[in-house]
Amino acid sequence: MNPALQQLAVEDLSLFGRDPWWLVVVKAVFCFAFLMVTVLFSIVWERKVVAWMQLRIGPNRHGPWGMLQSLADGVKLMLKEDVIVRRADKVVYVLAPIVAAIPAFMAVAVIPFGPAGNEVSVFGHRTTMQLTDLPIAVLYILAVASVGIYGIVLAGWSSGSTYPLLGGLRSCAQMISYEIAMGAAFASVFLYSGSMSTSTIVEAQHDRWYVLLLPVSFLIYIATMVGETNRAPFDMPESEGDLVGGFNTEYSSIKFAMFMLAEYVNMVTVSAVATTLFLGGWRAPYPVSSFWEGANHGWWPMLWFVIKVQLLLFFFIWLRGTLPRVRYDQLMKLGWKVLIPVSVTWLMLVATVRALRNENYDFQDIVLYVGGGVLGILLLSLLADVFRDRDGRRGAAPAEGPPPFDPMAGGFPVPPLPGQELPPVPRRGPRRDRELIVSGGVDALSDGKEADGGV
């Protein structure tokens, strides 16, 4: 990072920590209210959009156009009977929803709603449109997001039931798998911006957003953020078909509502992080910023930020209404065999480009070197596949027919492939063909007598 950008980062971070205590409380309450209002709107919006996709009406009873439906659902959940199962570990059982919900709110503390150098007036005091910032703000987001998984795991363990435990273990394995690729996607942004501060990362996108410079990192993060939030089509911890309800099967009333709240707050948080790291943060889009100089000043940056977050939330809803739930082995295969290798390879490529740029290489030379290396790797992999297939065909015995059917191939039930036949079902005895007997007829009476005589 050049000295001018380093100085900018220091000046931006020096603007934080000077607000009076009451203004810090006001900004914290605003962040909490922003998340709550966005969640209430997102629930209604999701039900409306999915209903529109499925040619239904959707909620239309509570409030104008059904806009108060989520508020009515929250009141209904709070008034329901709060049940604690007998075999549950009561302390952990009660604390698990709190552990899942609180970290979801903490991540928004370092999200910039506006430029650090553009202070706004709040009750006569000038302040930045961000609660705080850290030199390692993105690592702070990763840390608090990782704590939320403990609430889900503890909820499944403390319920004293098998199905919630399986749901909690599934969620733990899923989030660990997808956090690795997410961290690699973040590392590409760190290399390009030269900082982990969220305000500095947004400032570094003043001429071009990182979604254009790092498209692979953006796509990887989009896939990982869906897996991190346990949303469809990656909602395996809550799959009703095989786990009844997942980790929250034994929860009811306000505790169940807190799990639902944590899921939607996590959706808003990961959308805000994607906006900050890849979509220019609070910056106005290109057509607006080109002819309007005041688009990135005052309170206007908050409008652009909210619009981008809502577009990403619509993407979540679109996926839920479009794609079916994937199988668990497919979910793990995507995380470990696709996302992690692609993210690590892309990170090495970005690091190579940044190293060449720091050595003052021309753009044409960088494209030549990187493109030559990529083509060489692809050529070597192609040759390896060709020789491996040739050796396999040379040593393979001629196939006489389709392989025998194994109903538990891979560790899970699978249907037979074309050409395979199901194995015979064992029966208690030989099957006898019986003629149709009219109820109350002579044959029925004789069968009854024979049966009585035999007894």
Automatic annotation (TrEMBL):
Region of interest (Disordered), ranges: 393-433
Segments crossing the lipid bilayer: 20-45, 91-114, 134-157, 178-197, 209-227, 264-282, 302-322, 334-354, 366-384
E.C. no: 7.1.1.-
UniProt-listed InterPro entries: NADH_UbQ_OxRdtase_su1/FPO, NADH_UbQ_OxRdtase_su1_CS
GO MF annotations, alphabetized: NADH dehydrogenase activity; oxidoreductase activity, acting on NAD(P)H, quinone or similar compound as acceptor; quinone binding
Cellular component aspect of the GO annotation: plasma membrane
GO annotation, biological process: aerobic respiration
Top-level taxon of origin: Bacteria
Catalytic activity: a quinone + NADH + 5 H(+)(in) = a quinol + NAD(+) + 4 H(+)(out)
Membrane topology: Multi-pass membrane protein
Localization per record: Cell membrane; Membrane
Alphabetized UniProt keyword annotations: Cell membrane, Membrane, NAD, Quinone, Translocase, Transmembrane, Transmembrane helix, Ubiquinone
Compositionally skewed regions (Pro residues) per UniProt: 413-427
Pfam family, one: NADHdh
Job of this protein: NDH-1 shuttles electrons from NADH, via FMN and iron-sulfur (Fe-S) centers, to quinones in the respiratory chain. The immediate electron acceptor for the enzyme in this species is believed to be ubiquinone. Couples the redox reaction to proton translocation (for every two electrons transferred, four hydrogen ions are translocated across the cytoplasmic membrane), and thus conserves the redox energy in a proton gradient. This subunit may bind ubiquinone.
Subunit field text: NDH-1 is composed of 14 different subunits. Subunits NuoA, H, J, K, L, M, N constitute the membrane sector of the complex.
Homology family: Belongs to the complex I subunit 1 family.
UniProt protein name: NADH-quinone oxidoreductase subunit H
